[in-house]
Amino acid sequence: MRLAPSILAGDLADLKGCLATLERAGADLVHFDVMDGHFVPNLTFGPPLVRAAREHSRLPFDVHLMVTDPAALVPQLAGLEIEILSFHIEATRFAPRLIALIREHGMRPFITLNPQTPLSDVEHVLPLVGGVLVMSVDPGFAGQSFIEPVYAKIEALARYREEHQLVFTIQVDGGVGEHNIDELAALGVDLVVAGKAFFTCQDPAGFTGRVHELN
Prior knowledge:
Layout: E1 2-5, H1 15-25, E2 30-35, H2 47-54, E3 61-66, H3 70-77, E4 82-88, H4 95-104, E5 108-113, E6 131-135, H5 150-163, E7 169-173, H6 181-187, E8 191-194, H7 196-199, H8 204-213
Parallel strand pairs: 1-8, 2-3, 3-4, 4-5, 5-6, 6-7, 7-8
């Protein structure tokens, strides 16, 4: 599996140091949680911080938009070497149009769904996206525990991908750590986001290596 540590769990007063920790540990991407205080209760940061971070990291970026108007932010994030740009199916009625817009700006579109959102809500766009970000906690708060029923959703998504011969990445965000990375890999997950588990462990490089060994 690939690993995208969430920068939100690090010391944002030392953004440069956090990014250096990710590079030393061998992380694959830097995960940014962009929250607007409307789609989710919390307010974090926007394109200016992502732009500032680009000056201090060579890693590709993975940006998760938890906002009510994701289309408005797409042009602002173009040109920052963002590999993945994720938006919530719950935030738009025009997902195919938004997917096309993200691709036009040189980023891989990922569709995100909250724990209570059924897979049927995204099936119509699965042939169009580069990946699916499955939230395994309620979005907007760090440090939550993994919501157990989401395992079944991940398994069903991986089965759907195989049965329909589709090619997209399965990403999981929320409550990921040493206790469940083996199970997530076994279910078919390709990429995990880890915040607290990465920044509080004694050996970030060792944790990253453990993730890389799976799948």
